[in-house]
Amino acid sequence: MPSAESPGSSPNPHGRRPPLLSRVSLRNFRSIEVCDVALGPLTFLVGPNGSGKSNFLDALRLITDALRTSLDQALRTRGGAALIVRRGLSGASQFEIRLDFSLSDGTDGHYSICIAIPEIGDHVVQEEECVVGRARYHVREGRILVPPGPVSPPAADDRLYLVNASGLPEFRPIFDALSSMGFYNLNPDQLRTAQPADKGDFLLRDGSNLPSVLERLEKRDGDGKKRVEEYLGAIVPGLSSVGHKRLEHLETLQFRQRISEGLDLYEPFPAISMSDGTLRALGILVALFQTRAEPRIQLVGIEEPEVALHPAAAGVLRDALREASQYAQIIVTSHSPELLDDSSIQAGEVLSVASEQGRSIIAPVDAETRSALKDRLYTAGELLKANQLAPDRQTIPAPNELKFWELGTK
């Protein structure tokens, strides 16, 4: 149920969209030696700073970046493959990612990659595999072992084959879905600054094109923009609306806020006058509700949405996250007890993240915690305050037990 401060619920007339990613498996990705977790419509990755929450999201974002631009650029913006591979006792020279998915038409499948560090060069796509229903391919170091069809696009050992395979109708839906995932670490300074005009298809990671996205949301889904304003008004009392404003060839935000308590008098305020918390809250809400106007965005990941917000706003934010999970899959990193302090948050929506000797442990909460949450003895926030939101170590597989490949011989 929405909190007392939140706007009322706004059900999705088309029904809840099924989550895009049903499972994520990682091996030797940054601080994550092994990870194999199920995801639902709304998932909270909970743990202290430096535990590895952002690394989990970055594994997903790497796939998106590599499909939108190129694998080489995606790796270089992260310092190269050598800085991504986890350097532990195993002496690994490669990392692996597997995403199990379900498309909106009900088609299931998986997408797996293995990126290795060669003796010469920065990286090589050692293995890549994709299964979408009956369609499938498997590529090893630029050699097509299982072709996607009678006529196969060429492969290269330094690029993701899914980019080429997206020209085939069977693989286009998963390419669109994975390349359109959105991941956000919003920068209030960028939101204050006037920006060049943008198409507004997707909100950028830092939120810098927010005015364009907000304008597009208003044109394509006025109710979606209204929900943004209603939630923002619940977080910032007296704020009635926010809109897009042109400044010659640039764009910025303009807010309307009540200037006298008890009187229906409002005054416009530019973005430069607004607080970090107000701007971040707006950016988060637009990141969430842009999915109503842009169906290609099937997954949104947000890092620590509670930052710069007053703890009293946590309930409003939580309700917005839950409503937005009707339209897209939502993954949130957090270490905020206030955000999790609600009995509606179920054990299956929480992944506990801990760090041991530089190794990230990501797993569902343990059996005792699941029982306490199911019986509503405590909220997830209360357990987090008491440092009792522990990962279930029995669910963590050994690195060699993970299954990344089904078509190849590896």
TrEMBL record:
**Listed GO MF terms:** ATP binding; ATP hydrolysis activity
| Classification via Pfam families | AAA_15, AAA_21
What SUPFAM superfamilies does UniProt report for this protein, alphabetically?
Answer: P-loop containing nucleoside triphosphate hydrolases
Q: Where is the Endonuclease GajA/Old nuclease/RecF-like AAA domain?
A: 21-65
Provide the ATPase AAA-type core domain boundaries.
231-341
Q: Identify the domain of life.
A: Bacteria
Protein's GO biological process? DNA synthesis involved in DNA repair; double-strand break repair
Q: Which PANTHER family match?
A: ATP-DEPENDENT ENDONUCLEASE, OLD FAMILY-RELATED (PTHR32182:SF22), DNA REPLICATION AND REPAIR PROTEIN RECF (PTHR32182)
Name of protein: AAA family ATPase
Which species is the source of this protein? Corallococcus exiguus
